[in-house]
Amino acid sequence: MTKRYALRDDQWEQIKDLLPGRASTVGVTAKNNRLFVEAVLYRYRSGIPWRDLPERFGDFRVVHTRFSRWAKAGVWQKVFEVLSHESDN
Questions:
Q1: Residue range of the domain that includes 12
Q2: Residue 10 has pLDDT above 90, yes or no
Q3: Burial readout 47-86 (b: 16 or more C-beta within 10 A, e: otherwise)
């Protein structure tokens, strides 16, 4: 993935504990949180519809469903508050 759409390591460190499914959680959800967040960033930064999300991010329907759950739970609000304090270089 191009750096333009990826989280820097320092950004990931700032938000990872805000996300549902910590590394200690059983299952693949916690392990794939970074890839999932990068999928959402890719989608919005590139302006593509969900169905055009590259396959490396998984089934677009699953990504969209998870995105919606996090939105309803207020997760994205917290993430964007943290990340918005930085300029987009």
A1: 3-83
A2: yes
A3: eeeeeebeeebeebeebbebbeebeeeebeeebeeeeeee
Q: CA torsion sign, 55 to 56 to 62 to 65?
A: negative
Total domains, the chain: 1
**Which of 1, 74, 72, 76 lies closest to 33 in space, CA to CA?**
76
Residue 88 lies in a domain: no
DSSP 29-65: HHHTHHHHHHHHHHHHHHT--GGGS-GGG--HHHHHH
Q: For residue 2, report the phi and psi dihedrals to the nearest 5 degrees.
A: -70, 150
Answer yes or no: is 45 within a domain. yes
pTM for the model stands at 0.81
pLDDT tens digit sequence for 39-80: 999 999 999 999 999 999 999 999 999 999 999 999 999 999
